[in-house]
Design goal:
Blueprint (H helix, E strand, L loop, with lengths): L3 E6 L2 E6 L2 E2 L3 E2 L2 E7 L5 E4 L6 H11 L5 E5 L9 H7 L4 E3 L2 H6 L13 H6 L4 E4 L19 E4 L4 E5 L2 E3 L15 E3 L3 H4 L6 H15 L5 E5 L3 E3 L5 H11 L1 H11 L1
Parallel strand pairs: 6-7, 7-8, 11-14
Antiparallel strand pairs: 1-2, 2-5, 3-4, 5-6, 9-10, 10-11, 12-13, 14-15
Helix pairs in contact: 6-7, 6-8
This protein binds fe (ii) ion.
Fe (ii) ion binds next to loops.
Length: about 260
């Protein structure tokens, strides 16, 4: 399947790409291209897109020259970073601590995506949020729960990898209860810090996110789909997702307090 480059309006484009587990099952992946108020561009996440998408990106960004930065927001999404560095050598490439650790040979900025100073640098265009009660980089690299979420203010679009999932699959997978609704990544139970208060910290973070980003209109999610939820819907969707995680949070409280 070839990659898709979708104009979501207001300076936000999403690349819907493919990512195969074991070379077979395509779970999809994403990156986003965003035009800043300054007229420059940034990518959220790295993805080795095909030539057709590259041509569309080049047409928008003067052959890539106006891409000033690439922000890698998920600590365990690293396989496309090398390609991105080569494709956009003039851009500043930012990663999380794990990106810098896993690919020390790449030309990373010292400032990391989880650093407040970087979030402040882009605060006019984006709000960022990191879940509380879970580590950003889990010890178990199969626990993809945490990431840095980004809200692009101008388009009301939330870019999120894994922390939230929104699956839209064709029949017969569409019959599964997981599809067609916003949920938290199923690794939450493993991600919660083994300490008293972690479940409450997470719960509080999620409720606050819903309130603070209430104006968001849509979510672009890896590894799956674009969710056009409509303005004002986010707090309720987060509340529902939290409600379904109640057994997980209660079990954690029972064990750790
Ligand atoms: Fe992932």
């Amino acid at each position: 399947m070839s990659d898709a480059f979708v104009d979501l309006g207001d300076g936000f484009w999403t690349v819907r790409g493919s990512f195969r587990i074991g070379g077979i099952v395509d779970i999809g992946t994403q990156c986003s291209l965003v035009r800043l108020a300054s007229g420059s561009f940034v990518f959220l996440d790295s993805y080795a897109f095909d030539d057709e998408v590259r041509a569309r990106v080049d047409a928008l960004t003067d052959g890539g020259r106006r891409v000033e930065a690439v922000l890698n927001l998920h600590p365990f999404h690293t396989v496309h970073c090398e390609w991105m560095h080569k494709a956009f050598p003039q851009a500043r490439h930012y990663g999380t601590s794990r990106h810098l650790e896993i690919a020390p040979g790449l030309d990373w900025q010292e400032l990391r995506c989880e650093d407040d100073a970087l979030m402040q640098r882009y605060a006019d265009d984006f709000a960022f949020s990191i879940p509380r009660g879970v580590p950003l980089v889990a010890d178990n690299e199969n626990v993809h729960f945490s990431s840095i979420l980004a809200l692009h203010r101008a388009s009301g679009t939330i870019h999120v990898d894994d922390t939230f999932v929104y699956l839209r699959k064709g029949f017969p997978l569409s019959l599964l209860p997981l599809t067609g609704r916003l949920g938290f990544h199923p690794t939450l139970a493993k991600a919660l810090e083994p300490r008293a208060g972690a479940a409450d910290d997470f719960h509080e973070w999620a409720v606050e996110l819903g309130v603070e980003w209430a104006g968001a209109r849509r979510i672009v999610a890896a590894h799956n789909a674009v969710f056009d939820m409509g303005a004002g819907q986010f707090p309720e969707r987060v509340g529902e997702a939290l409600g379904r995680m109640k057994p997980v949070l209660d079990a954690h409280r029972a064990k750790h307090g």
